[in-house]
Predict the 3D structure of the following.
Amino acid sequence: MGRHSMGEFEHLVMVAVLRLGPGAYGVSVIEEIEARTGRDVSQAAAYLTLKRLEGKGWVEGRREEGDDERGNRERRCFRVTREGRQRLERSRAELASMWEGLAGEFGR
């Protein structure tokens, strides 16, 4: 589990996938991140990150058949794996540990 590090954008993508649940797909992940952070997210960045996360074993993708609403186009949906959840929790704990005691530095 510890051989890969997690970047900030990977963290955001994985949390978005978790928030969206089993129907999470590329565009919905982008929209979730943009809505919650105010950042502009390119499709290329999101899809490359999802592919990289799959390679690390932190997310799994599956094809979902198209329907009339989508013009019968397939889409790829994602879910966070058990290993991904463990790594995400570890990353969250690491960040919390680093921030511990700094509240006064930021006027809180």
Q: What stands out?
A: The chain has one domain: 8-100. The domain at 8-100 is CATH 1.10.10.10 (Arc Repressor Mutant, subunit A).
